[in-house]
């Protein structure tokens, strides 16, 4: 695969072919770039002089995306209503969005965190073992800190359900963690969609570690019970046992493990019937110590 290195202020952007990114200089000085995404988007940290912003842009031919940039533009435009409808303290705030020629840009608040799944920097095994990996460092945090992040994620997704949306493509790559200030933020809900929603792809967007069986079944209903599975998988991802979901790898209590295990049942009928029911069961398990 041919790539080009394109200097831009304090960074170098790697793309499949040159692309005009001059619009970023109208916003501020680019100090960071995220150009290894497989979504067709490229992200930029931009300093306006008064504040820092995150700019997500679709329209360039990125190195990890083999599709048509026009399709990435359509997806980014389609994501904008979800950020407006699902505004929440746990979700990064959308500030602006606009067309840039044939491309499209969305501007968010900057969050000084690290992605908990840096697949471009660490292999799957290194994610759990390399002390520089954000995921490995997160697992070393005291349990109450990890619980804070998990509770915020659960609260946000209950909010998602109440707003009539379903989470699609949520995984640990959607979570940013600020190790300096011990806080987290959900950074990517681009694929979230209003209900009702039917699986029209077969194997949908997402990480297999977080995906329910119906997210691989063409024509299946994708709904709140699907997201119960996602939240159970998230509990395993943040509290241990991500890869094998054994009690031995779990750092929460036994009652919480049983709630998470029920949530990730392959049989939808066994899962909790709603995210509110899941959160209620989780709270009771947490109180049980």
Descriptive overview:
- The protein starts with a strand and ends with a helix.
- Helix 4 packs antiparallel against helix 5 (224-239) and helix 5 packs across helix 6 (254-263).
- The mean pLDDT is 95.
- It has 7 helices and 14 strands.
- Strands 3-4-5-7-6 form a 5-stranded antiparallel beta sheet, covered by helices on one side. A 3-stranded antiparallel beta sheet has the order 8-10-11. A two-stranded antiparallel ribbon has the order 1-2.
- By secondary structure, it is an alpha+beta fold.
Strand content: 15-25%
Strand order of the largest sheet: 3-4-5-7-6
Q: Which secondary-structure class do the elements indicate?
A: alpha+beta
Major β-sheet, in short? Answer: 5 strands, antiparallel
Poorly predicted regions are none
Mean pLDDT over the residues: 95
Radius of gyration using CA atoms only = 19 Å
SSE topology string:
EEEEEHEEEHHHEEEEEEHHH
Distance between the termini: 53 Å
Number of discrete helical segments: 7
Count of extended strands: 14
Morphology call? globular
Helix residue percentage: 25-40%
List the helices and strands and how they pair.
Layout: E1 4-8, E2 11-15, E3 29-34, E4 41-47, E5 52-58, H1 69-85, E6 94-100, E7 103-109, E8 114-115, H2 124-129, H3 134-139, H4 143-162, E9 165-166, E10 175-178, E11 183-186, E12 193-194, E13 197-198, E14 221-222, H5 224-239, H6 254-263, H7 275-287
Antiparallel strand pairs: 1-2, 3-4, 4-5, 5-7, 6-7, 8-10, 9-12, 10-11, 13-14
Helix pairs in contact: 4-5, 5-6, 6-7
């Amino acid at each position: 695969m041919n790539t080009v290195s394109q200097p831009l202020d304090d960074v170098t952007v790697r793309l499949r072919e040159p692309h005009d990114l001059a619009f970023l200089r109208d916003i501020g000085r680019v100090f960071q770039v995220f150009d290894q995404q497989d979504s067709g988007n490229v992200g930029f940290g931009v300093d306006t002089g008064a504040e820092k912003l995150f700019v997500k842009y679709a329209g360039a031919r990125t190195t990890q995306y083999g599709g048509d940039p026009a399709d990435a533009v359509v997806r980014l435009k389609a994501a904008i209503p979800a950020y407006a409808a699902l505004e929440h303290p746990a979700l990064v705030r959308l500030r602006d969005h606009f067309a840039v020629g044939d491309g499209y840009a969305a501007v968010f608040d900057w969050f000084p965190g690290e992605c908990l799944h840096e697949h471009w920097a660490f292999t799957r095994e290194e994610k759990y073992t390399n002390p520089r990996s954000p995921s490995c460092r997160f697992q070393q945090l005291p349990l109450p800190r990890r619980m804070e992040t998990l509770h915020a994620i659960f609260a946000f997704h209950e909010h998602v359900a109440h707003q009539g949306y379903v989470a699609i493509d949520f995984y640990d790559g959607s979570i940013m963690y600020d190790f300096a200030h011990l806080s987290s933020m959900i950074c990517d809900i681009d694929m979230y969609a209003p209900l009702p929603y039917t699986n029209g792809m077969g194997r949908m967007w997402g990480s297999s570690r977080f995906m329910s069986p119906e997210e691989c079944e063409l024509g299946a209903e994708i709904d709140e019970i699907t997201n119960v599975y996602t939240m159970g998988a998230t509990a395993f991802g943040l509290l241990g046992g991500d890869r094998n979901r054994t009690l031995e790898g779990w750092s929460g209590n036994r009652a919480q493990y049983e709630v998470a295990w029920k949530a990730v049942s392959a049989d939808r009928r066994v899962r909790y019937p709603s995210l509110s029911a899941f959160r209620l069961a989780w709270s009771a398990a947490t109180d049980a110590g």
